[in-house]
Amino acid sequence: MNTKTIITGHSSGLGKALAGHYLQAGCGVLGLARRQAGLRPFEKLAEQRIDLSDTAALSAWLAGGFLERFIEGADEIILINNAAAVAPNAVAGRQQAAEIAAAVPLNITAPILLANHLIGCKPERAVLKIAHIGSGAGRNAYPGWSVYGAAKAALDHHARCVAAERHPRVQIASIAPGVVDTAMQNEIRRAHEADFPMVRRFIDLKSEGGLSSPETAAAEIAAMIASENFGTEVTDDVRRLR
């Protein structure tokens, strides 16, 4: 099977582990991020340096036809919307306007633009699997994460609506990966308790070994996407399988 995989935020953390997983499986991978990842094999990896929080830049790039050329001839297309900003880690009233303005287009607009474009342009016979990287923060209310949680809840509901539309050969799910040991977690642990009342919880998770590795989470997510039942649970969680 000719599988082409598009992964946002592939240059670090979970996204890099996902890209590495699919490259090792022999899939063609297109990574979208501000930095290159330095992954191998090089011949299977295409990279586009782009700031996904810049909606105008992303829209212009999509209009250029690169995605259509990348997926040409594919039997299976996988889109993993992984890129996200967790900031602002702060309760309402203490959030920085610039962080809100950067987070919303990255966390919500970019995934929806990419999903919409691929649904519209995929080859008729190809199967398209869309995986939003969701979060428990989008399914539970946590103080300090009104912006991040709202964004993840938006992706959950986007997946529900697209699934309800019943596009031919399109499967979609929003998958919560659990708490993964990435740079995002470092950022969370640096937050001030006055801004982010849950910071102690994340410090304890790290010290108690409660974080999964990016490689473990990537393998679990890839297994869920590969399952013939992918999309049956539209809002899913890797911890369901542990």
Q: What are the key terms here?
A:
single chain; 242 residues; alpha/beta; Rossmann fold; seven-stranded parallel sheet; sepiapterin reductase (NADP+) activity; NADP; oxidoreductase
Structure description:
This protein has 242 residues and is of the alpha/beta class. The chain has one domain (3-178, 219-241): Rossmann fold, CATH 3.40.50. Helices cover 42% and strands 17% of the residues. The protein is built from eight helices and seven strands. It has helices at residues 13-24, 55-63, 66-71, 97-121, 146-165, 183-189, 199-207, 214-226, and strands at 3-8, 28-33, 45-49, 76-81, 127-133, 170-176, 235-237. A seven-stranded parallel β-sheet has the order 3-2-1-4-5-6-7, sandwiched between helices. Strand 1 (3-8), helix 1 and strand 2 form a beta-alpha-beta unit. Helix 1 crosses helix 8 (214-226). The longest helix has 25 residues, at 97-121. The radius of gyration is 17 Å and the shape is globular. The two termini are 28 Å apart. InterPro entries: Biopterin_syn/organic_redct, NAD(P)-bd_dom_sf, SDR_fam. Keywords: Cytoplasm, NADP, Oxidoreductase. It comes from Neisseria dentiae. Pfam families: adh_short (PF00106). GO terms for molecular function: sepiapterin reductase (NADP+) activity.
